[in-house]
What does this fold into?
Amino acid sequence: MSKKPVRVAVTGAAGQIGYALLFRIASGEMLGKDQPVILQLLEIPDEKAQKALKGVMMELEDCAFPLLAGMEAHGDPMTAFKDADYALLVGSRPRGPGMERAELLSINGAIFTAQGKALNAVASRNVKVLVVGNPANTNAYIAMKAAPDLPRKNFTAMLRLDHNRAASQIAAKTGKPVSSIKQLAVWGNHSPTMYADYRFATIDGASVKDMINDQVWNKDVFLPTVGKRGAAIIEARGLSSAASAANAAIDHMRDWAWAPMAPGSRWASRRTANTVSRRT
It folds into this structure.
């Protein structure tokens, strides 16, 4: 018997991260190869943005994904979040030239307050919310506070990109596959101030800390590389991380939604109201 479709709301759906994300959700990479999805796509109520969203939806149609049970385009979070089981809040206002941080916080505060209120009003009572749009921690907190009728633990901010970046650097340093790294954690904000922590990490049961045994590399290479990776990508590419951010969002939601919570399993980093890192 086929499963009932679940509703996945995505904001900023026509943006770079949204574009890299939607096809993977529709293919089953996020929620499983047997889980049909209905995509509820939100873009700003602007003619150009809505036209771009229409083009993305055409491409999704042309992929003929067996698991894509439906799609909807929206310009209002009150309709986009209706009965949503999962909500990925990707869209946010980036900081522009000459813009003060206080101004950016004010603009994004209004966006995420409205989205939190809409989730509170119309989403599933068990909706799982991932905030990708930066500043992710602050935006997640704002959305959560605007949704008092939903569980606090169901609002999360993305740290998985930093986690994946840290894992990749450790794999390169040790010559071991990324899949063998367990119990890695990342603490703090998604920013250069975050702290990637391999004190408890293991590879095939062996301590990563003992295996690397190089504090100079940790201080001068590992932490700066992970913390400043986003800026390095912007300098090299001329644009911010998109595919890797979308991949991290997929990893975050997949592990949260259906990966087993078992003793000794690998850890994955995400920010919630009460914790930073959780086993998945």
